[in-house]
Amino acid sequence: MVSDNIELDFGMATTFDAIRHLDHDLSRRWIAASTLYFSQNSTFDSNDVAIEISHHSHGQNVVYPFDEVTARYVRWEVTLQYNTASTQHTLGGKELAFLYDANIVELPAPTITLSSNSAAASPASNIVDGDYSTDFI
């Protein structure tokens, strides 16, 4: 099981109904699936809402809509690598944005509270910096 992850604090209860994700350029680093956990506190547990995302259209900005959920904290966890035969296990992406009203409102970047170890000097903040030329993990 893959376990690259990032935990985010939006500073107050925030409503979400989609994410926009841009995967890495290299197919050996693409994500096949991930899970979003939404929590009212920084302790994630089995009572929190979990939404599974099936990733597709790698190399494009893809919006993944889901039922509306309100939370202050979000944990994004990569759960499956696209190319399971690849020995490259630095997964994450170039950009991740949280949305409300699907394509209409991009929410401000959250504070990163915890993340997997970065690789190749690619810090977690790169995935929410609005810069498509940087990446995380």
Task: Offer a few descriptive terms.
137 residues, mainly beta, 7-stranded antiparallel β-sheet, globular
C-alpha termini separation? 16 Å
Strand content: over 45%
**Structural class estimated from helices and strands:** mainly beta
Number of strands: 7
Number of helices: 0
Q: Outline, from the CA principal axes?
A: globular
Please give the radius of gyration in angstroms. Answer: 14 Å
The biggest beta sheet is recorded as: 7 strands, antiparallel
Percentage of helical residues?
under 10%
- Low-pLDDT stretches are none
- Please tell me the overall pLDDT: 79
Order of helix and strand elements from N to C terminus = EEEEEEE
Secondary structure blueprint with pairings:
Blueprint: E1 5-22, E2 31-39, E3 49-54, E4 62-81, E5 95-100, E6 105-106, E7 111-115
Antiparallel strand pairs: 1-4, 1-5, 1-7, 2-3, 2-4, 5-6
Question: What would your notes on this structure say?
Answer:
The chain is mostly beta strands and 137 residues long. Helix content is 0%, strand content 48%. Strands 1, 2, 3, 4, 5, 6 and 7 form a seven-stranded antiparallel sheet that branches. 28% of the residues are buried. The model has no long low-confidence stretch (mean pLDDT 79).
